[in-house]
Amino acid sequence: xxxxxxxxxxxxxxxxxxxxxxxxxxxxxxxxxxxxxxxxxxxxxxxxxxxxxxxxxxxxxxxxxxxxxxxxxxxxxxxxxxxxxxxxxxxxxxxxxxxxxxxxxxxxxxxxxxxxxxx
Length: 119
Description:
Radius of gyration: 13 Å
Shape: globular
Distance between the termini: 40 Å
Number of strands: 11
Largest sheet: 7 strands, mixed
């Protein structure tokens, strides 16, 4: 089992930045694909950014490309999401997720952290 805990959310003005952290316990994340998802009120959860276990291979939703950066520190068993140039439409609950290499879908989820961007 992998337990994921997100932190770093908050209220920020448009144009500002936040850095989300996701720390894991129970298993090392070194052999897991990691991702960030978000869910805005009244909308479905959507993929934001992902990083494969072999660091260096990342992908992003078009809406965040050039503004968000996903990274991981295997020594700290943590994943991060640096969010710059935040916009009100980025307001959502952000979730960290992990997928083992043999899993088809992301099978471990954190509880989420709220990000609110004011205009």
